[in-house]
């Protein structure tokens, strides 16, 4: 929303206007979605461990990609949930339930593969610390 006009209906006119809308959306997701806060906390923990374990540049790229993937999928899951609630006016819909379940499934897939990548990166480094 434009800062001056809370009921904007036309396209954004400037990059800064678009940026403000995007920023407001991210803040809303962070404040309204417990899982986004959990993902953020886990991302901070992963970043701290990555820094402590002196990851290579390539390993950092994978970690950053996984963190980004989790934030994107959680945000899209929230979008799907809100759209279903808007269309169904928050009444039960079997199709709406399927849509929400599929969006949550996308987050689960991203978390699963991010976890595998995290294990592939961190387990050997932790093992080497324990062995030596």
TrEMBL record:
It holds the Pfam family DAGK_prokar. GO terms for cellular component: plasma membrane. Substrate binds at residue 74. The chain crosses the membrane at residues 36-54, 101-127. It is a multi-pass membrane protein. The keyword Cell membrane applies. Gene3D superfamilies: 1.10.287.3610. GO terms for biological process: phospholipid biosynthetic process. PANTHER family: DIACYLGLYCEROL KINASE (PTHR34299). This is Diacylglycerol kinase (ATP).
């Amino acid at each position: 929303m434009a800062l001056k006009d809370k009921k904007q209906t036309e396209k954004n006119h400037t990059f800064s206007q678009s940026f403000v809308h995007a920023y407001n959306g991210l803040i809303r997701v962070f404040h309204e979605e417990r899982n986004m806060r959990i993902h953020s906390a886990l991302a901070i923990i992963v970043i701290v461990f990555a820094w402590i374990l002196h990851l290579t540049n390539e390993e950092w790229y994978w970690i950053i990609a996984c963190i980004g993937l989790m934030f994107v999928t959680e945000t899209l899951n929230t979008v799907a949930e809100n759209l279903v609630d808007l269309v169904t006016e928050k009444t039960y819909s079997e199709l709406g339930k399927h849509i929400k379940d599929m969006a949550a499934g996308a987050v689960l897939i991203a978390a699963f593969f991010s976890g595998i990548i995290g294990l592939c990166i961190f387990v050997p480094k932790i093992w080497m610390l324990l062995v030596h």
